[in-house]
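Lab notebook page, bench 4
Experiment: in silico fold of construct C2
Operator: M.H.
Input chain length: 334 residues
Purpose: comparison with the prior construct
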Amino acid sequence: INTLLELFSSHEEMAESMNDRPILGMFKAWLGFAYYMNGKPIKGLKHLEQALEIAKEVDNPRLRAYACAWLAWCNWDIGSADKAVAFGEQGYELSRQLSPHQYLDFKPIAAVGNQYVFEGRWKELKSIGTRLLEKGEKTSNPRCFFTGQQYLGFALFLLDKPDQAMENFQKAIEGSADVPFYHYWATTILAMSHTMAGQMEKAGRLMAEVVEFCSAGGIRALGDYALVNYGIALFAQGRMNDGLTILREVADAAAKEQRKRLLLVAEFSMGNVFSQLAAPTEPVSLFTMMKNIGFLMKNLPGSAKKAEKHFHKAMKLAEETKSYLYGGCLLYTS
């Protein structure tokens, strides 16, 4: 993504000087997508909105579908839930006119699925997952297969069937083995399920792979979410300072780029870290305490208040982004 962003940015003036509106529109769409993937959705929105206007002007359904798909993901990242769903559904309807299409068959509706995960809407996730699986089988599209398994897995997770959900997440990894970005996306989801199951060693190992891949390519759209979970795993494994430092750095970067969704996840995670310091759910070994003595002396005093502060920020963000799943968790912890 770093290379892609550099390539498009360096040729923007040339593209704008061309007397070809459809090509300029697609250029703007790709530039906007590159900014989104690099963790800069606000910059991405600017170019994608220009691409959508051009698509309407020249009546180009393909360009409009691409613009809607990536506008859905940008809006999801900044926490504009209604716009994310609206653009995702528009892109999906347009994609049906262009199907079979290896990219548009899954990308717009996947953004809707991501929003529904955060809203806790298992029925809709089951429907989206089933549709994507059927499309993947019909068109031999591994991306449809991957996203279908992922959203079916989330539906099962929301139904409190974590073991069955992890089976779907594992199938998503297997089905995306030849598509690196989606393979690591699937790996992130599986690692998150290990985190929630308390299997921190497995989660940390998987997240380290994702972080390395994303860091090398500048893929912050995925890598920063992986970093949050990597920080949680490090903290749980006794590397407390390293884990909290990662969470703070991600939160600062998310706030700077107005990525409310990521900021919610980071604030919620920091609230959990300080909550664990204030009232550990499991005994902490003497070795772990000795290894983290400086960290504990600095952060243990007032940890309950710090947890409350982060949870309060997360609750506000959950309301703004329609992340009802996180809102429910926060009500449970308060």
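Observations: Residues 271 and 308 are 7 Å apart (CA to CA). The chain has a mean pLDDT of 94.
Next step: discuss at group meeting.
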